[in-house]
């Protein structure tokens, strides 16, 4: 199927899951994960109405930002790990960053965000499964990270992101997500601008939407499994 057909199918699946779990219509946004995919695929998705795209690799993200600058309302999200020496490129080009988990990176992104641009939207990455191999802070560190980010002038905290360990059932996955959702709701009570819970990919979209996700990150189901270079 084409990119446009795949997008239509994924959107239909999101609508069906919103209905299944009594979520408000259009409360879950779709982030198309376009890492390693060619410009032509992104342009096809854009033509089909997709505006939000997620990239994992800094140089690739910067190159795509430059080559597709004529698409004025495209919205670039950085969803990969951030190295200190690459933070400036991210701060200068991206609209969102999903992977804040270190004070140093938060400070650098704020310092390096161009003053003529709106503040950079950021999400704190939480390691909800406690995996040593995964990035993210622990939930008990969340309050300190929130306080830090809210003091920085050129980044704006929008919510939380997580990539949990795979579970054997939907019910188990929902159980893993529960503490994160509780933390997200607690943050919303403190700050009305907190509005984004970025959880859920192709393999756990149902559990994520059941658990309050407001943004799902989908790549393969839209662009296919084969890796490309742009």
From TrEMBL:
Q: Which Pfam family is one of those matched by this entry?
A: Ala_racemase_N
Q: Which PROSITE patterns match?
A: UPF0001 (PS01211)
Spell out which residues are annotated as carrying N6-(pyridoxal phosphate)lysine.
35
Where in this chain does the record put each Alanine racemase N-terminal domain?
Answer: 7-226
Q: Which cofactor(s) does the record list?
A: pyridoxal 5'-phosphate
- Organism domain of life: Bacteria
UniProt keywords (A-Z) are: Pyridoxal phosphate
> Does the keyword Cell cycle feature in the UniProt annotation?
no
| Gene Ontology molecular function: any one | pyridoxal phosphate binding
State the protein's purpose. Pyridoxal 5'-phosphate (PLP)-binding protein, which is involved in PLP homeostasis.
Keyword Nucleotide-binding recorded: no
The name this protein goes by in its record: Pyridoxal phosphate homeostasis protein
The source organism is: Marinomonas gallaica
Give the family per the record: Belongs to the pyridoxal phosphate-binding protein YggS/PROSC family.
Q: Which InterPro entries match?
A: Ala_racemase_N, PLP-binding_barrel, PyrdxlP_homeostasis
């Amino acid at each position: 199927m084409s990119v446009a057909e795949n997008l239509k199918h994924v959107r239909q699946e999101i609508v069906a899951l919103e209905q299944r779990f009594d979520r408000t219509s259009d409360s879950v946004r779709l982030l198309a994960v376009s890492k390693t995919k060619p410009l032509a695929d992104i342009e096809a998705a854009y033509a089909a109405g997709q505006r939000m795209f997620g990239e994992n690799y800094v140089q690739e993200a910067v190159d795509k930002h430059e080559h597709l600058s004529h698409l004025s309302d495209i919205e670039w999200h950085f969803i990969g790990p951030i190295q200190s020496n690459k933070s400036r490129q991210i701060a200068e080009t991206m609209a969102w960053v999903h992977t804040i988990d270190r004070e140093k990176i938060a400070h650098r992104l704020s310092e390096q965000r161009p003053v003529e641009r709106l503040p950079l939207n950021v999400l704190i990455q939480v390691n909800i499964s406690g995996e040593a191999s995964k990035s993210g802070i622990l939930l008990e560190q969340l309050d300190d990270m929130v306080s830090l980010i809210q003091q920085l002038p050129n980044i704006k905290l929008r919510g939380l992101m997580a990539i949990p360990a795979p579970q054997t059932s939907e019910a188990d996955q929902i159980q893993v997500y529960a503490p994160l959702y509780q933390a997200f709701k607690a943050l919303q009570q403190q700050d009305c601008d907190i509005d984004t819970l970025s959880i859920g990919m192709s393999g756990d979209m149902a559990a994520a939407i059941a658990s309050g996700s407001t943004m799902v990150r989908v790549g393969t189901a839209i662009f296919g499994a084969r890796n490309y270079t742009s």
